[in-house]
Amino acid sequence: MSRARFAWAAITVYAVAMAFVEAACVVSLKRLYFPEGWRPPFHAIPLDGLRLEQAREVATLVMIAAVALLGRPAWREGLARFLWIFGIWDLLYYAFLRFLTGFPSGPGDLDIVFLVPREWIVPVWVPVVCSIGSLLAALRLHRSAAGGG
User: What's the pTM value of the predicted model, to 2 decimals?
Assistant: First the structure.
């Protein structure tokens, strides 16, 4: 296996593992903050918990960036890796969440998808489409960085 393929395999494994960790964490958080069940309208998360969650989300993005930039790739390759990890992580997060909890039951289910700088409540199909777009952009950037057009 070439060095480049090994790197992409490694970041893919990282993204899959990170998706599971995120889903497990969110299952616990939803049980803590929404014991009545996960459905709209969502009540406010207590401020101390909200700040902690916002910091965790920012840390997640920093972790994705740090792994994407290991080995000091050229900027296109680094961005491609970031988008690849992000896309895999977010898609599989919903797959693991569905497996663990039954949510989402469909693409129209509303979810709090991000808390920075404030709550983003959208149907699940929105982050799914964004994740697919991230994966496609990653492949295009990777090919471009590798000289493949």
Answer: 0.92
